[in-house]
Amino acid sequence: MNDTEEEMAPAVRSILAAARGRSGGDTRLSVDARSFPEAVAAAEAEGRVPVVAEVKPTSPTTDGRVESDPVDLAREMVSGGATALSVLTEPEHFGGSPDALRRVREAVDVPVLRKDFVLHEAQLDLVEADLVLLIARFLGEDLSTMVDAARARGFQPLVEVHSRAELRDALDAGAEIIGVNNRDLARLEVDLSTFERVAPDAPDDVTLLAESGVTTPDEARRMRRAGADALLIGSAIMDGDVRANTERFVRSERTRTDETNTETTQ
């Protein structure tokens, strides 16, 4: 275990240990990916907040497990206006599976992100997706190699960072889609100011996501004001009526505009 890993929460170290033991696919994949930046632009043009809604059965930071069919959840999220979906494929800590992602991607026409803890190239070949998550902190010096390996298969790599230094590493690795995770890896606590600190250093031509901790429309608007092109939202959508919850975030800016217009005419 290196010094960086020692600073991580026990749950994160457990996730990493499990990820190291998982194999990859038997054959190299070649993916015809649906463009995430184009989907974000289309949502903006239609006046929707670009939301990546996450199909997440469980996690180390949530209680219980959602037993609903992932395909049913995905369809409801898309009906609610989701620009893209994130599907967990990590089995031990998040209750995900490659089969769930495969079924979801076949059922919807929006880009689908594979949310997992991919540590070596063979693990990219487990299942087709439009985007694949690569976590800068976990990959370290291998980040650039993994970004290239993902692109060689047709994936759009979403590189996750937690700091300005990791943002620079992501940009040096050629990342064009970057997620800033507001949940730290040491205490698993959420701080929305993480995105606000990191986002100003991101160039305009990068598609920038705010990840974790967005639980209300006000927080969605806060992240958008700070420069988020899109929002990755999990628990706040999964908890309850996923279609209505998705729509609430997708319409968050329009709702505020409507409220403001109402106030000024009274």
In summary, what is this structure?
This protein has helices at 3-6, 10-20, 36-45, 70-79, 91-94, 98-107, 136-139, 143-152, 164-172, 193-198, 217-225, 235-238, 242-250, 252-265; strands at 51-55, 84-88, 112-115, 131-135, 156-161, 177-181, 207-211, 230-233. By secondary structure, it is α/β, with parallel strands linked by helices.
Explain the overall architecture.
- The chain is built from 14 helices and eight strands.
- α4 (70-79) runs parallel beside α13.
- The chain is globular, with a radius of gyration of 18 Å.
- It is of the alpha/beta class and 266 residues long.
- An eight-stranded parallel barrel has the order 1-2-3-4-5-6-7-8, surrounded by seven helices.
- It has one domain (3-265): Aldolase class I (TIM Barrel), CATH 3.20.20.70.
- The chain has helices at residues 3-6, 10-20, 36-45, 70-79, 91-94, 98-107, 136-139, 143-152, 164-172, 193-198, 217-225, 235-238, 242-250, 252-265, and strands at 51-55, 84-88, 112-115, 131-135, 156-161, 177-181, 207-211, 230-233.
